[in-house]
Amino acid sequence: MKSLIDILDLTTAEIDELIQTACDIIEHPQKYSESCKGKKLATLFFEPSTRTRLSFEAAMYELGGNVIGFSEANSSSAAKGESVADTAQVISCYADIIAMRHPKEGAAYVAAQNASIPVINAGDGGHCHPTQTLTDLLTIYREKGRFENLTVGLCGDLKFGRTVHSLINALSRYSGIKIVLISPEELKLPSYVKKDILQKNHIPYEQTTDLQAALPQLDILYMTRVQRERFFNEEDYLRLKDSYILEPKKLQKAKSDLCIMHPLPRVNEISVAVDKDPRACYFKQVLYGKFIRMALILKLLEEAGK
Ligand code: NCD
C-alpha cells in the first residue's frame, strides 16, 4: 500500500500493526522523536478542518519532521484553476508525503494516481475519512480491548457523515459486530452502504429513530453532527440539526462501560454535562488520533523507501 485512500486499502493485519505501533508510541514517545528527521509532510486542505489538519501536523512534528501546506482552497493555486492532479505532481517535488482533504469525492484518489509520494486521504466529500476511522479503531481498542462482539450505535447524520461510512466499512471485517443505526428518516444511512457493506457481509443491523430506546444494548455510541455544509437548503438543516441531544439523564439506562465517541466538532448533539461522565471518550479519541497518524506516517514513509 503506497497511499491510504479508503480504510479497506489496509488489511486487518496492517490495522493491527498500526495499532501496535501507536500503542508503542504512547508508551515510549522518545523512541520516535527523530524518526522523521529531515522529512516533510504537505497538508493540502481544500476544506476547513481543525483536528485533522493539526493532528497531522502535530504527529509529524512529534516524529521530528517538518510540515508545509495550506489550510484553505483559496490560498492555493486551486483558486487559479489548477487541477488536483497537477497540484499532486507539484507537491511531490517538495514533500515526502501528502495529507489531503477535499470537498469532492474521489479527489484523494486522483491525487494518489498523480503523485510520486504517498497520499493520505484526510476526507473526500461525503465519501470516506480513513484516518478518522483509524483513530476510532485505536479508541475502541484502548477502551474495549477488542473489535469483536460489540454492539455499536451510530447516531445522527448517517447520510452525509463520511466518518460513519468508513467506520462501518472497517467494523464489517470483525466477527460478532452488530450495528444500530439511529437517525431521522431524512438522514438515514445511504442504501449503497447498507447493501454493499452491511448486507454483503451479513452484519446484523437495526434502524431506528429512537436513541433512548437503543441505548441500553450498546457497547459503543458513536455520535455525529448534522453535516450542515452538505445540505442543499438551510431550512432542512435547521429542522434536523437538533434531532438528537445526548444528556446525562438519557444515559441512565446505558451500560456502565459504554464508550461514547464523537469524531468532533460537536455542535449540540452531546450536552457539555456529559463530558464529566467517565463513559465520555471523545476527547481521549482526539489524542489517539495524533498517535495513530504518527504510526501511519511512519508506515507509509517506510514502505515508500523514504
Ligand atoms: C469529521 C469530518 O471531517 O468528517 N471531523 C473530523 O475529521 N474530526 C466529522 C465532522 O466534520 O462532523
Question: Can you describe this structure?
Answer:
- There is one protein chain.
- This protein is α/β, with parallel strands linked by helices.
- It folds into 2 domains: 139 residues, 3-Layer(aba) Sandwich (Rossmann fold); 155 residues, Rossmann fold.
- 37% of the residues lie in helices and 14% in strands.
- It is built from 10 helices and 9 strands.
- The strands form 2 sheets. A 5-stranded parallel β-sheet has the order 7-6-5-8-9, covered by helices on one side. A 4-stranded parallel β-sheet has the order 2-1-3-4, with helices on both faces.
- Helix 1 packs across helix 10, helix 5 crosses helix 6 and helix 5 packs across helix 10.
- The longest helix is centred in the last third of the chain and has 22 residues.
- It starts with 11 loop residues before the first helix and ends with a helix.
- 47% of the residues are buried.
- The model has no long low-confidence stretch (mean pLDDT 95).
- The structure holds N-carbamoyl-L-aspartate.
- The site of N-carbamoyl-L-aspartate has 11 residues, from helix 2 and helix 6.
